[in-house]
Amino acid sequence: MKEATYDIVVKNGLVIDPYQDIHEVMDLAISNGKIVDVRKGINESLAGKVIDASGLIVTPGIIDIHVHCCYNILNIGIDPESCCLEKGCTTVLDAGSTGELNFRGFRKYVIERSRTRILALLNIESLGMIEYGSQGQKWPKLIMEYEELFINVENTVKVIEDNRDVILGIKWAHHGLTGLRLAREAADRAKCILMAENHLEPETIKYLKKGDIVTHSFHGLKWMGNPYDGILNEDGNVKPEFYDAIKRGVIIDVGHGAASFSWKVAEKAFSQGVKPDTISTDLHVSSVKGPVYDMPTTMSKFLLLGMSLEEVIRASTSKPAEVIGMLGEIGTLKPDARADVTIFKLEEGKFQYTDCMKESRIGKQKLTPVKVIKDGRIII
């Protein structure tokens, strides 16, 4: 019996790879955990395993750059296997679940044991997001009022330097402008990116530099009593500081979450030329059962908002790969890239989607993952 040339061949799928500007029916060959060929007419008889993707969409493995997957380490964390990888996300970025005092356990017991490729941002708060209770209740009053901060910049920088293979930067979340100033200092000293939540605006965005990320970009909540805390001013216009940030290369990220996405805010921003660079979920214990659910559901919401299928896939593959410094290695199906592949069915019908304001919309399309390959291994 002739030995197989390829481990896996994916046949007849609509390949959408924005990095290579590919949007056509093609075949895909995988060997030894890498993509080895993308073209029409690959001989399936040379494959150990053949996947028929006729009528389906074949994309690079999806990348979610805002999750909380410190499963069984802190209460906020969801299981990266069932909630991310099996839903099509082969790579995720944990957005500051842990800080310098508890990152070690996260690395040893979750990151190093997971099939999901997990990278991390280190919370500027030394204990990370300990404010979440056992059932997802969040933000005890003391922390909400920013009366106490437990931050050690020196140790934070050292933990980053000791874990450069996993930690990509700093996350600032709920801890006032003092915490943000210290996060900026730590990121500069460690020469890494900074992700900041879209709160205490317009001051927050001024701290971000080229390559940094503002997340929760389309939230519609009052924050600390300010009804115009986010991207829009009281007239419903995008604040000038956000346009300035975009010009200097700050990344606009979704970070949907349980309280950080509004249809109306997104529509107003879109109408003024501001769309997300990256689509992300902010999956955690309070969002995984709704309104977020998973990355494909979040991607489908942006189809509903009018982004094209290619724009949505770019914001979920090649652009986040660029943001985390792995463009060409992941986020693409080019030969010699890691063999991370997500195969979707694009369903047509009527599908209800809900934002964080409990407002529902009916979309005509839904992306459903039917096959996931990570490093050349079939996951589902």
Overall helicity: 10-25%
What's the CATH H-level homologous superfamily of the largest domain? Answer: Metal-dependent hydrolases
CATH C-level category of the largest domain: Alpha Beta
- Bin the strand percentage: 25-35%
Order of helices and strands: EEEEEEHEHEHHEHEEHEHHHHEEE
CATH topology of the largest domain: the name is TIM Barrel
> Which CATH architecture of the largest domain is right?
Alpha-Beta Barrel
Query: Strand tally, please?
Result: 15
Q: How many distinct domains? A: 2
Rounded Rg: 20 Å
What does it look like?
The chain is built from ten helices and 15 strands. It folds into two domains: 6-59 and 338-346 and 368-378, Urease, subunit C, domain 1; 61-323, TIM Barrel (Alpha-Beta Barrel), CATH 3.20.20. The relative contact order is 0.17. The protein is globular and about 60 Å long. The model is unreliable at 139-147 (pLDDT under 50). The protein is of the alpha/beta class and 380 residues long. Helices cover 21% and strands 28% of the residues. The two termini are 28 Å apart. Strands 1, 2, 3, 4, 5, 13, 14 and 15 form an eight-stranded mixed β-sheet that branches. A seven-stranded parallel β-sheet has the order 6-7-8-9-10-11-12.
